[in-house]
TrEMBL record:
SUPFAM superfamilies: CheY-like
Residue span(s) of domain Response regulatory: 2-113
Name of the protein in question: Two component transcriptional regulator, LytTR family
Domain of life: Bacteria
Keyword set includes Phosphoprotein: yes
UniProt KW Phosphoprotein keyword: yes
Keywords assigned by UniProt, alphabetized: Phosphoprotein
Domain HTH LytTR-type as annotated: residue spans: 147-249
Amino acid sequence: MRTLIVDDSRLARTELRHLLGAFPDVTVVGEARHAAEARELLTTVRPDLLLLDIHMPSETGFELLASLEAAPQVVFTTAYDEYALQAFEVNALDYLLKPIQEVRLAAALQKVQARLAPAEHRPAVVAKPAPEAPALSTLTEQDQVFVKDGEQCWFVRLAEVRLFEINGSYTQIYFDQHRPLIPRTLQHLEQRLDTRTFFRANRQQIINLNWVESIEPWFSNTLKIRLRGGPEVEVSRQQSGRFRELLSL
């Protein structure tokens, strides 16, 4: 389990590294003193796990996560207990209070191993390069993204997102009962998403093919698709032809 430690305290980083030495399956691949340093390391060391402090200079741990397009598994390590609810609202796997006890660390690592086990044969979910970088890797349905909308935050696996839809200068994403807005264009998302799973239905919408519930003919040789959990999506004439070829209809 490749682990990145992010904490502004040198003593805290040293103590965590010492504690992790008791777990042979854990490899510390780097340390960061603040969010900017962590952001750089995430693109190069490709960790499975982020041991993340909350209070740091310039940016908090939550702000670091909000700046990432995708993130590894996260366990918060902090001296403050008042952020526990917020941590679990973003689907962090655990929340360890300093001084960290080895038994609590062991329990947290077991949770991480359980989460990673089904995906042990695929690359870890990591932060991707900035959009203008020349080599952008594809985001698959197994990747998870951090979404922040106002005061609410989520870690969302792309497999759970059934629809991306233009909403003004933002994109609205549909998962569970939520519809937060993200500061990404649909064109940017189309370039990043795996075309085996995500299909551009029209100028306004990208659908997750695994969420298609029914397909019916519509006007002018187009198609109308109903997604599980809604809504209905009208496929443009050009894309209807591509959709039929894709599914051999």
